[in-house]
Write a structure and sequence with these properties.
The structure is a single chain. This protein is elongated. The chain has helices spanning about 10-25, 65, 110-125, 150-165, 180-195, 220-225, 245-250, 255-265, 265-300, 305-350, 355-390, 395-400, 450, and strands at about 30-40, 45-50, 55-60, 80-90, 95-105, 140-145, 170-175, 200-205, 230-235, 250, 405, 425-430, 435. It is of the alpha/beta class. The protein folds into four domains: about 10-105, OB fold (Dihydrolipoamide Acetyltransferase, E2P) (Beta Barrel); about 115-130 and about 140-265, Hypothetical protein af1403, domain 2 (Rossmann fold, 3-Layer(aba) Sandwich), CATH 3.40.50.10550; about 265-295; about 395-450, no CATH class. Helices cover about 45% and strands about 20% of the residues. Helix 4 (about 150-165) packs parallel to helix 8 and helix 5 runs parallel beside helix 6.
C-alpha cells in the first residue's frame, strides 16, 4: 500500500461530493416504507421529515414541485411508501432521501390508479374548462348528494339556513364510502339531474384517507357529474384532498361548508342590496314625479280661456294689419320716388334735335374744309413727285441729245473695251432706235471728242 504522505488530503466538500456520487451511482430509484415523524412544512413549500420503522430512521426531503402533485396532506404518524433517490446532502454531510412521489401504505396502487384515471379522463376532455357551466346567481332549490348520516350534510344545511333560509335544500341520499359506493353516488347524481326540481347540486363528504374518499374517484361518478343537466359543485374532503369528482365538477370547493357558501347567496347581503335598489328606485320615482310636476305647472301656465286666446289672436291680427298697411305705404312711396328719379334721368338722356342738327352742320362744314385741305396737300405732293420723276426719267435725258447703247444681249454698254469690232448694237434716241455695228474702238477718247458728244449717263433705263 503506498505511503499516505505522498497523497494530498481531500477537502470535506470534495469528500462529500465523492460520497454522494458513489451513493447515487449505486442506488437507483427505489421504494421505501416507513412512518412519518418530525414533519416540517417550510414556507417555500418543501417538506422535511424523518421516515422511520422499528429499527432505524432516515432524513427525507420532498421538494415543492413534488409535494404539490401529492394530492393529500402529509402528517406525522402516517405510514407511507415513498419512491426515493438515495443521496447525501453535501453541505452537512447528512445521508438523506429525496422523495419523488409517495403513497399511503396499505392503499396498494390506489394512487397510481388515481393518476392513470385522471390522465385518461383529462385527455378525453372531461375536465376541459370549456365544458364548465356557470353557477346560478339566485338558486331557489339546491340538491345535496351525500349520506344522511354524514357530518358534511349538517355543515351544508347549517350554512344554508344561516346564509339563505329562502333556499330549499333537497337531499338525494347515497352511501359515500364502501364497496359499490361510487355506483350509488353516480345513480344519485342521475336521479338529482332528472328530477327537474333543483337549480344546482352539491356533492359532498367530510375528510378522510384516500381509501375513505375512493368512491369519489370512480369513473362513473365523474361521468355522472358531467352528464348532470344542472351545475355541480364538489365539496369532498378537506382543502388538501383532491378527487376525480373535484376535477369533473363545474366548481371545486375546499370543504362542504365552502360549497354551500359558494352556491347560497347571503340573505343579509341580498337584503341590503335590495334595500339599496329600493332606495335608488324611490329616488328615481321621486325625481320623475318632480319633473312631471314641473312640466304640469308649465302646461298649466300655458293653459288659458278660449276668449282670452281669441283676444290675443285678434290683437296679433290687428298688429299684423297695421304692419301690412305701413309696409304697403312704404312700398308706394318708394316706388313713386324711384319713378321720379327715373323720369329725371330720362329727361336728361332724351336727344335735343335742334342742338344735334347744329352740331351736324358744324361737323359737315369742318369735314368739307378738312377734305379740301387734304386734297390740296395731296395735289402739291403729287406735283413735287412728278417733278422729281421727270428729273429721273431717262427719256428726258435722251431729249437733251443723249443716247442709250445696248449690246446684242440687251446689256447697257458703258465701256468701249467690252465690245468687239463688228458687234451689233442698238442705240436708243429721244425718238426711235438705231441698229448699228461697231466699226472701231477707241477706249482713250474723252467726253466731247469725235464731234463733241457727251457720254451716255450710267443711270439710263436699259428697257427704253
Amino acid at each position: 500500500m503506498p505511503d499516505s504522505a505522498a497523497f494530498s488530503p481531500l477537502s470535506v466538500a470534495a469528500l462529500n461530493r465523492l460520497v454522494r456520487e458513489c451513493i447515487e451511482g449505486n442506488f437507483p430509484l427505489c421504494w421505501v416504507a416507513g412512518e412519518i415523524s418530525n414533519l416540517t412544512l417550510a414556507a417555500s413549500g418543501h417538506a422535511y421529515f424523518t421516515l422511520k420503522d422499528e429499527g432505524a430512521q432516515v432524513r427525507c426531503v420532498m421538494f415543492r414541485n413534488r409535494n404539490a402533485l401529492l394530492g393529500w396532506r402529509l402528517a406525522n404518524g402516517q405510514h407511507v411508501e415513498a419512491r426515493v433517490l438515495v443521496t447525501l446532502y453535501e453541505a452537512r454531510g447528512d445521508f438523506q432521501l429525496n422523495v419523488e412521489t409517495m403513497r399511503q401504505a396499505g392503499t396498494g396502487n390506489l394512487f397510481e390508479r388515481f393518476q392513470k384515471l385522471k390522465a385518461r379522463l383529462e385527455a378525453e376532455g372531461l375536465f376541459a374548462a370549456e365544458g364548465k357551466r356557470p353557477l346560478p346567481t339566485f338558486p331557489r332549490r339546491i340538491g345535496i348528494v351525500t349520506s344522511p348520516q354524514a357530518a358534511a350534510l349538517r355543515d351544508v344545511l347549517t350554512t344554508l339556513a344561516r346564509r339563505a333560509p329562502q333556499v330549499e335544500a333537497i337531499l338525494f341520499p347515497t352511501p359515500v364510502q364502501g364497496d359499490g359506493a361510487g355506483t350509488q353516488i353516480a345513480a344519485a347524481l342521475a336521479a338529482a339531474g332528472a328530477s327537474g326540481l333543483i337549480d344546482a347540486l352539491i356533492v359532498c363528504r367530510g375528510g378522510g384517507s384516500m381509501e375513505d374518499l375512493w368512491a369519489f374517484n370512480d369513473e362513473a361518478v365523474a361521468r355522472a357529474i358531467r352528464a348532470c343537466p344542472v351545475p355541480v359543485v364538489s365539496g369532498v374532503g378537506h382543502e388538501t384532498d383532491f378527487t376525480i369528482a373535484d376535477f369533473a365538477a363545474d366548481l371545486r370547493a375546499p370543504t362542504p361548508t365552502a360549497a354551500a357558501e359558494i352556491l347560497a347567496p347571503e340573505r343579509a347581503r341580498l337584503l341590503r342590496r335590495l334595500e339599496d335598489l329600493q332606495a335608488a328606485l324611490r329616488r328615481q320615482a321621486e325625481h320623475a314625479i318632480e319633473q312631471r310636476a314641473q312640466r304640469l305647472d308649465g302646461l298649466a301656465r300655458r293653459l288659458t280661456h278660449p276668449a282670452g286666446r281669441l283676444k290675443r289672436q285678434q290683437e296679433t291680427l290687428t298688429h299684423l294689419g297695421r304692419r301690412l298697411a305701413a309696409a304697403g305705404e312704404r312700398q308706394r312711396t318708394g316706388a313713386a320716388t324711384r319713378t321720379a328719379a327715373l323720369s329725371q334721368r330720362l329727361l336728361r338722356c332724351r336727344p335735343q334735335a335742334a342742338t344735334l342738327l347744329r352740331r351736324t352742320d358744324q361737323m359737315a362744314s369742318r369735314l368739307v374744309a378738312a377734305r379740301e385741305r387734304l386734297h390740296a396737300a395731296h395735289d402739291a405732293r403729287l406735283a413735287r413727285l412728278a417733278d422729281s420723276l421727270d428729273l429721273l426719267n431717262p427719256l428726258a435725258v435722251l431729249g437733251r441729245g443723249y443716247a442709250l447703247v445696248q449690246d446684242a444681249d440687251g446689256r447697257i454698254v458703258r465701256d468701249a473695251r467690252t465690245m468687239e469690232p463688228s458687234a451689233p448694237i442698238r442705240v436708243y434716241l429721244a425718238r426711235g432706235r438705231l441698229d448699228a455695228e461697231v466699226t472701231g474702238i477707241d477706249d482713250s477718247a474723252a467726253p466731247g471728242d469725235a464731234g463733241g458728244r457727251p457720254p451716255v449717263p450710267a443711270h439710263g433705263n436699259r428697257d427704253v
